[in-house]
Amino acid sequence: QVQVVESGGGLVQPGGSLRHSCAASGSMFSIYAMGWYRQAPGKQRELVARITSSGDTIYADSVKGRFTISRDNAKNTVYLQMNNLKPEDMAVYYCNAHVVVNDYWGQGTQVTVSS
Q1: Could you give the CA distance from residue 96 to residue 22 in angstroms, rounded to a whole number?
Q2: Which of 12, 25, 43, 114 could bond 16 through an S-S bridge, CB–CB 3.0 to 4.6 Å?
Q3: Contact indicator for 104, 24 with CB cutoff of 8 Å
C-alpha cells in the first residue's frame, strides 16, 4: 500500500501562482510514475501533468507553458508549479502514484482562482 499525501492549493487571484507538493510512501518511489489530475464541479477528472520514473513529462494542452511538474526522488516528493493561473484552473487537484499496475490517490486539494 502506498500512501499519498498532498499539500498546497488555496486561493489565488488570476495570474497568480501556487505550488502543490505530494509525498508518496515506499522505498521504491523512484520507479513510480507520478501525476496530477484535477476535477472541476460537474466535470470528469482529467490529467493535468505526469512524470515518469525517468523524468519524462506530459501536460494537458490547457496547462502547457504555465504548469511544471517535477520530482525529487530523495524526498519521495513530486511538485506541481502552477503559474499564470486562470479561473478555468479552479478545481480539486489530486496526486496520483502509479506503481506497476496499481494507482494510489491523494485526498485532493482545492485550488480557487478568483479576484
Answers
A1: 9
A2: 12
A3: yes
